[in-house]
Amino acid sequence: MSALTHAPGRLAWRPGATGMRWSRDELIARAVLLVVMALLFTFLIAPLASILVNAVLNKEGRFVGLAHFVTYFQTPSLMRAAWNSVWVSTAVVLISVPAAFVFAYALTRTCLPAPLKAAFRLAALIPLLAPSLLSAISFVQWFGNQGALKFLLGGASIYGAPGIILAEVYNTFPHALMILVTALSLADGRLYEAATALRTSPLRQFMTITLPSCKYGLISAATVVFTYVVSDFGAPKVIGGNFNVLSVDVFKQVVGQHNFSMGAVVGMLLLLPSLISFAIDWNVRRKLKAQLTARSVPHSPKPRKLADSLLALFCTLVCVFLLAVVGMAVYTSFITLWPYNRGFTLKHYHFALIESDMSAAYTNSLTLAISTALAGSLIVFLGAYLIEKTRNLGLMRRAMHLMAVLSMAVPGLVLGLGYVLFFNHPANPLNFMYQTMAILIVSTIVHYYTSSHLTAVTALKQIDNEFEAVSTSLKVPLFKTLVRVTVPVCLPAILDIGRYYFVVSMASLSCAIFLYSPETILASVAIMHLDEAGDIGPASALASLIVLTSIVVCIVYSLLTRVMLARTQAWRQLGRH
């Protein structure tokens, strides 16, 4: 038997050999992949393990087993917080998901003008650019004790469960919408053609074709919304009043009482519903892939004047609601004192950016967002490329993929608490990172790793492995192929990852609330402190700046990428002719 030719990037076999020898490129690829895996293990698995360890230890560090869990479940106020989290999250799911479904249906199954659909979609995604505190502050301004629409509530109060539900519906609506737009866009037009030929009524088509075809999307949207609400800290902290939930309880145990053991217990309980939702969502996504076939044809909706008009009216009302929330925050940032003096002023911006002791918060958030976008894009894409394009990884591929998707199931508060327990330990050699900008950057990358990883993997799966095979046969180094071929082809996905990291870094609060220092305080944290101090104007000014910055970055991103993609993606246009 003759030996196979050895070339860089290929496995070399020797006559009579019982194994295989890795080439230099493969050794380098595995070494880099091990570094990425080590980073995920250190900054994701180890902090979670620290929470588990602290949950079974007392303040002196002695093992007490499940004593803290027993204490928690025997404390009525703490158990009430767990129940409040569950039922409030369920209520948000029951409101947000159906509303997002109708909105997504209008975007995908109607004959509304394309510019109108684009305007609806843009308005619906604005909540993604805002910190979760913005919605809570705005609803206080609309329906609070001095609210503009206080009279609509009669004698009821916005503080507590009603305010949390309203704010979380606003925060979660775009997340559910993106999932459901994708689900409704994957419909097989042949089913509707057959139903129309059989004279099936539109209502029956909806009940027997539309709903079953997107049931997995509905389940996925529900799990994402439920997980988001359970783990969100900003809205309950601002508008929750005395209505306690798990996310606020973690903050009180750790920051208020310095009870890290009980905080670890609450963190474990907060992690449980997220893990269950993640497991459901993961199973749903696997079944969703199995439903797609190569013979499916796009569904082309038929004009229905009455239905299209009603759906357009619904979308208009939803967009008015979403824009009113942002609009109130912007309006509050420009008036002297709500509701007594509504004269125009810029003093809130001057105070938030220059005068207050939190003046560095906005620039710190910009530093975090830019650093996270650059470093996160590089780490995520490199990790995804190595597990997709490196052969014979075996268990390494499974371990890397598991860690990459696990961060989706970890709430930001739980991850932040894990960082406190792990990196603040005196015996940890990485203790020097605690309360630095570096740990904020790493925590943000890890917290939002899953979505970025799946984006990169999806883009890489579209590239045939023959590219690497041809490069290998020509003795082109693996990483030269990466830079010259793979990166230009996947540039749209890489740029999307960078934009995503920038936007979420500007608005993120839950993970950073445990990790900042006076020198690294972020705008989202400063908004919370300003609101606690009663400085609603400066808090609204900072929140408005976050939204404005993200909008400007998205606009600049779209303009720059259009130029860049015109040069690197010319092959796509050639393939159409």
Secondary structure layout:
Blueprint: H1 24-55, H2 67-73, H3 76-108, H4 114-124, H5 132-143, H6 161-185, H7 189-197, H8 202-213, H9 215-231, H10 234-239, H11 246-256, H12 260-291, H13 305-334, E1 335-337, E2 341-344, H14 347-355, H15 361-389, H16 395-406, H17 412-423, H18 437-447, H19 449-461, H20 466-473, H21 478-489, H22 491-507, H23 523-532, H24 536-568, H25 570-574
Antiparallel strand pairs: 1-2
Concise synopsis of the structure shown:
The chain is mainly α. 71% of the residues lie in helices and 1% in strands.
Q: What does this protein look like?
A:
- The chain is an all-alpha fold and 577 residues long.
- It folds into two domains: 20-61 and 346-570, MetI-like fold, CATH 1.10.3720; 66-130 and 151-316, MetI-like (MetI-like fold), CATH 1.10.3720.
- Helices cover 71% and strands 1% of the residues.
- It is built from 25 helices and two strands.
- Strands 1-2 form a two-stranded antiparallel ribbon.
- A hairpin with a 3-residue loop joins strand 1 (335-337) and strand 2 (341-344).
- Helix 1 crosses helix 12, helix 3 (76-108) packs across helix 13 and helix 12 packs across helix 17.
- The model is unreliable at 1-20 (pLDDT under 50).
CATH fold call of the largest domain? MetI-like fold
Low-confidence blocks of residues: 1-20
What is the strand tally? 2
Mind telling me the CATH class of the largest domain? Mainly Alpha
Total DSSP helices: 25
Strand content: under 5%
The end-to-end span amounts to: 47 Å
As for the number of domains, it is: 2
What structural class do you assign from the helix and strand content? mainly alpha
Q: H/E element string?
A: HHHHHHHHHHHHHEEHHHHHHHHHHHH
Q: Estimate the helix proportion, in percent.
A: over 70%
CATH architecture of the largest domain: Orthogonal Bundle
User: What average pLDDT do the residues reach?
Assistant: 82
What is the name of the CATH superfamily of the largest domain?
A: MetI-like
| Sheet having the most strands | 2 strands, antiparallel
